Amino acid sequence: MSKIYVIHENDAWVEPLRAAFAEQGLPYEEWFLAEGVLDLESAPPEGVFYNRMSASSHTRDHRYAGELTGGVLRWLEHHGRRVVNDSRALRLELSKIEQYETLKEYGIRTPRTIAAVGRSSVVQAAKRMDGPFITKHNRAGKGLGVKLFHDVAALEAHVASPTFEDSVDGITLIQEYIRAPQPYITRVEFVGGELLYAVRVDTSLGFELCPADVCQVGDAFCPVGEQAAPAAAAPRFEIVKDFRNDALIEKYKRLLADHGVGIAGIEHIVDANGLVYTYDINTNTNYNASAEAEAGLYGMKSVAAYLGRELGRVARTSRPGRGERQDLAA
Q1: Is 243 inside any structural domain?
Q2: How far is CA 85 from CA 88, 90, 163, 197, 293, in A?
Q3: Angstrom distance (rounded) from CA 132 to CA 100
Q4: Of residues 144 and 184, which shows the higher confidence score?
Q5: Which residues, at least 6 apart from 281, have a Cβ–Cβ distance to it below 8 Å?
Q6: Confidence class of residue 327 from pLDDT cuts 50, 70 and 90?
Q7: Do 241 and 149 lie in a common domain?
Q8: Cβ atoms of 198 and 189 closer than 8 Å
Q9: CATH code where residue 228 lies
Q10: Facing residues of 31 across strands?
Q11: Which domain holds residue 132?
Q12: What percent of the chain clears pLDDT 90, i.e. is strictly above it?
């Protein structure tokens, strides 16, 4: 029987999806790709494959999960399987450079960004910036490497200190700091390539750095990860049901469709001049439970329903007996 196969490396982030599958009576199986074996001469099972690999997998001691997932996705694609968030999406997930260059291809404004490898190069890159700037890891997630600097001297001291940490791919990004006149950013959620909702994240309670990497106390499934922020710095997430920016949304939708992304959250910030800067595409999107409960909208339920519809399409078109399930267990 065809199933939905969920490819991931973090049980906590899949728990709400499991509940949604159970509620909707959908058959599914998980491929936990922290490590494993892939026989390229075998054929994958029929079904729908949903890639939830995260750029921050290495922070959970799953250093090569992204690389293994890349191989698995190409194997699935070679055999013509339906993959949601395919190998093109994974490339976006694992590289901010890939994200920014792709966004620019669609006429989407991004913050000025310089990539550097090596501590001295990081300092040299920062000298090209006018005004405050932030650092971040190219292969990121969970706010890795995100720090705000008001001058190069402060960065130079940081880079020379034991607290400096390289990105897992060795690439540090130096990016202009976008100061918003109002303390919030917007995250736009897409399911099935269509707008689900936008969520406004209030960053006024002491949050000054990258507004993407924040977490609400008690919410184990927020985009930042497993660690909750202290109560004094907890932001408020509020779903905006009537969010309107049709031109930007259409650009986002075209980008996602062209790059194999069915499910994603895209984040942007608006500066004092009303200019919108997009700075993150998260293809391993999670949802804020309290904000959804207040609005009565549920991302994981929508994801499950979308995957169920895709499974129905596969079941109607697939031929029986095309292969056995590949055992990816270690």
Answers
A1: yes
A2: 7, 7, 34, 19, 26
A3: 20
A4: 184
A5: 92, 93, 99, 102, 103, 261, 264, 265, 266
A6: very low
A7: no
A8: yes
A9: 3.30.470.20
A10: 7
A11: 113-176
A12: 75
Q: What is the total count of domains within the chain?
A: 3
Instruction: Kindly state the tokens that stand for 126.
Output: 């920062």
Q: Looking at the domain assignment, is residue 56 inside a domain?
A: yes
**Contact call for residues 319 and 32 (beta carbons, < 8 A):** no
Give the strand pairing for 171-176 and 113-117.
Answer: antiparallel
Cα 132 to Cα 154, 176, 275, 278, distances in angstroms = 11, 6, 18, 18
Say if residues 176 and 150 touch (Cβ distance below 8 Å): no
- Tell whether 208 and 145 lie within a shared domain: no
Interatomic CA distance for residues 328 and 209, integer angstroms: 39
Going by C-alpha positions, the residue among 109, 123, 122 that lies closest to residue 245 is 109
- pLDDT at 322 exceeding the cut of 60: no
Residue 83 CB partners (closer than 8 Å, separation 6+): 48, 49, 51, 73, 76, 77, 260
pLDDT value, residue 69: 98
Q: Global pTM?
A: 0.88
pLDDT per residue over 257-310, tens digit each? 999 999 999 999 999 999 999 999 999 989 988 889 999 999 999 999 999 999
State residue 236's pLDDT score: 78
CA-CA distance, 200 to 192, in Å (whole number)? Answer: 21
Residue 208 has a pLDDT of: 35
Tell me, what's the pLDDT at 183? 83
Q: Is residue 69 within 8 Å of 212, Cβ to Cβ? A: no
Q: CB 147: neighbour CB atoms within 10 A?
A: 16
Give me the residue label for tokens 């689900």: 196
E strands, 102-223, are 113-117, 133-137, 147-149, 171-176, 184-191, 194-202
Q: Which amino acid is at 250?
A: E
319: confidence class by pLDDT, cuts 50, 70, 90: low
Question: What single-letter amino acid sits at 188?
Answer: V
